[in-house]
Structures are given as C-alpha cells and as structure tokens.
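Exercise 7. Given the encoded structure of a 155-residue chain, write a plausible sequence.
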C-alpha cells in the first residue's frame, strides 16, 4: 500500500478534532476511522486511500451530531500550542479566532492545506471539488483572513 498510515493517524485526529472540538471524542473517532478503513479489505488496494480515510472520518463526525447526546463544548479553545513567547501565543489565538469566523467550508480547506499539509490534489480528492475550486476556496479564505486581520489591526 502506498499510503503511509502511521503518518496519517495524527492528521486524521486533527481533522476529527477540528470537526468535533473534543479531544476524547476525536480520539475515539480516529480509532473508529482506522477500524472501518481496515475492515474494508476490498477498497484498501484500489482507489485513493487518503481520500477514503478522510471520507470515513467526515462521515463519523457527521454521525456524532445526529445522535441525541449533548456534547461538552468546554474544550473549544483547548490545544492552542503553548509557546514560551507571549507574542506567539497571542498570534496563535488571534489567527484561530480569525479562522473561526470563516464559513465552515473555507475553514475546512484552510485546515487541510495548512494544518495537515495536504496538496491541492489531495484536498480535491477528499472534498470532491475540482482542483480549480479548491484553489479558489483557499484564495478566498486567505483573502477573507487578510481583511479580518487588517480590521483587527494585526500586522
């Protein structure tokens, strides 16, 4: 198999956390994603395994919100990288807040591109959008972030 799954585990976890904003739930969903992936022996050796992993994770995250349980949202600002330098921490918080003002679809492409370091082609396979549409969404998101940060006097 050409996909190095050990390298993808952290990325799938980050993606699940991005979707559900709960560390325990994100860990469970990541585990379940890989269990479902490996239980589908017929798909593993054909197709696009990375896109399939993200599709499984996305569907599991959507299913969480279909359940009648109420999730704890008190972890929403958790996991901001702890930096020794206060300016770096302030920058991280400001950027995170700016990204959270974007529409969900733009947040997702920014997350996949810059947090999980996926290529435009990989994002295209995961989202089902054309590469041109992915480029356009990334450009749109970055433009929105630039104007948000200008309004905040963030230089």
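Solution.
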């Amino acid at each position: 198999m050409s996909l190095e799954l050990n390298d993808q585990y952290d990325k799938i976890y980050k993606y699940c956390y991005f979707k559900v904003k709960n560390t325990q739930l994100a860990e469970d969903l990541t585990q379940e994603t890989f269990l479902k992936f490996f239980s589908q022996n017929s798909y593993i050796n054909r197709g696009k395994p990375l896109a399939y992993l993200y599709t499984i994770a996305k569907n599991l995250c959507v299913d969480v919100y279909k359940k009648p349980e109420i999730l704890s949202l008190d972890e929403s600002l958790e996991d901001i990288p702890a930096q020794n330098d206060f300016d770096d921490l302030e920058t991280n918080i400001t950027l995170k807040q700016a990204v959270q003002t974007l529409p969900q679809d733009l947040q997702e492409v920014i997350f996949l591109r810059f947090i999980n370091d996926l290529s435009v082609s990989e994002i295209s396979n995961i989202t089902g959008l054309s590469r041109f549409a992915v480029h356009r969404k990334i450009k749109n998101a970055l433009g929105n972030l630039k104007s948000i940060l200008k309004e905040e006097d963030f230089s």
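Remark. The chain is about 70% helix and 0% strand. Students should compare their own answers with the one above.
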